[in-house]
Amino acid sequence: MSRAKTLAALLTALVSAGCWEQVDKHWFDQMKNQPSVQALAERPFMPPEGTIRAGGMAPRLAPDFPMPLQAPEGRALANPITSTPESIARGKHEYEVNCVVCHGVDGLSIPGPQNPVTLKLIQNGAVVFPLAGIPAYTDGMIFYKIWYGKPNMPGYPQVPEEDRWHIINYLRTLFKGVS
After folding, report:
1. From CA 167, how far away is CA 99, in angstroms rounded?
2. For the whole model, what pTM was predicted?
3. Of 50, 93, 112, 127, whose CB neighbour count within 10 A is largest?
4. pLDDT digits over 45-68, tens only?
């Protein structure tokens, strides 16, 4: 009988050891005591600084516009954000977060160790064009290109509309006078 009591006491000690933090909620607040975020209860929060936002697909244009860059409604768009030093700084930041991985810091998409994604794209048969042609495009064309993408470039609808305009303001300074 003594052996059974010892075994029962040992089993009780082992089982209760796994629940020790529940003795008093003030000792060790665990995840169960934290406030929870309910889905759709609040406006979605923005992702941490320096990360790429996820989500969403841009609504598609009519099938007769395989190149959104050429869509007339895109050509007609005007940039509502004035090009200020603040806008250019915001555009540069967003470019560095969302675009630099493929287009490079200078926008020229030069394959090499400084642009490993560009190098991989070229090795896999993609044609990579530098952004030096930007001066020839209207702001609306660039806006549509960022939003919808083009062949060999995915669209980035997750970049908020305002940030797309800031990126365009930055690109205008990056390729000023280049054609």
Report:
1. 9
2. 0.64
3. 93
4. 566 666 666 665 555 566 556 666
- One-letter amino acid of 82: T
Strand partners, 112: 115
d(CA 167, CA 90): 7
**Residues 137/75, Cβ–Cβ less than 8 Å:** no
Model pLDDT for residues 130-167, shown as the tens digit of each residue: 888 888 889 999 998 888 887 778 888 889 999 999 99
Indicate the domain borders of the chain. 89-174
Could you give the CA distance from residue 142 to residue 138 in angstroms, rounded to a whole number?
A: 7
Q: Which fold has domain 89-174?
A: Cytochrome Bc1 Complex; Chain D, domain 2 (1.10.760)
At 54, list the tokens.
């996820």
Q: Which two tokens stand for residue 57?
A: 């697909």
**Tens-place pLDDT, residues 27-42:** 555 555 555 656 656 5
Distance from C-alpha of 164 to C-alpha of 161, rounded to nearest angstrom: 5
3-class secondary-structure state, position 131: helix
